[in-house]
Amino acid sequence: MQTQTSTAGDTVRAAMRGRNVSQYKLATHLGLSQTAISRRLADDVEFSISEIRAASALLDTDFSHLVTPAEAPQSSTVAVDSTDPTHAGVVPRPSVPSGAEDATANASSALPNPAAAA
């Protein structure tokens, strides 16, 4: 039995269907043409991080839902002694498929740092 992995286009399309949002409405919200949205939904062109963030707001869904394939583990489990003050504020890191570390580092370096703005 072969497992089919969801793509960003698949998850965005499913969220659009669930919220009854047309390609035209998503395109208008993102400042793109309907053709550009159609190409992204068909996975001919990748969604940018900012497009996924804006789409998640319009579709009233969590950003991570649109970028995390259903079959992939959501995060690594990290055992932390909550009584140890050196572990205060430790957050588990999401698991990354082997070989994707460089792509993840490059993508996250383009994200704004909310702590720097404060």
Written overview of the protein:
The protein has 118 residues and is mostly helical. It has a domain at 1-70: Orthogonal Bundle (434 Repressor (Amino-terminal Domain)). Helices cover 47% and strands 0% of the residues. It has helices at 8-19, 23-30, 34-41, 49-58, 63-67, 101-109, 114-117. Helix 2 crosses helix 3 (34-41). Mean pLDDT is 72; it is low at 71-81.
Could you list some keywords that capture this structure?
single chain, 118 residues, mainly alpha, 434 Repressor (Amino-terminal Domain), 7 helices
What class would the helix/strand composition place it in? mainly alpha
Give a short account of the largest sheet.
none
Q: Termini separation (Å)?
A: 51 Å
Identify the quaternary structure here: single chain
Radius of gyration: 17 Å
> CATH-wise, what's the superfamily of the domain at 1-70?
lambda repressor-like DNA-binding domains
- In CATH, the topology of the domain at 1-70 is named 434 Repressor (Amino-terminal Domain)
Given as residue ranges, the uncertain stretches (5+ residues, pLDDT < 50) are 71-81
Summarize the structure.
It is built from 7 helices and no strands. By secondary structure, the chain is mostly helical.
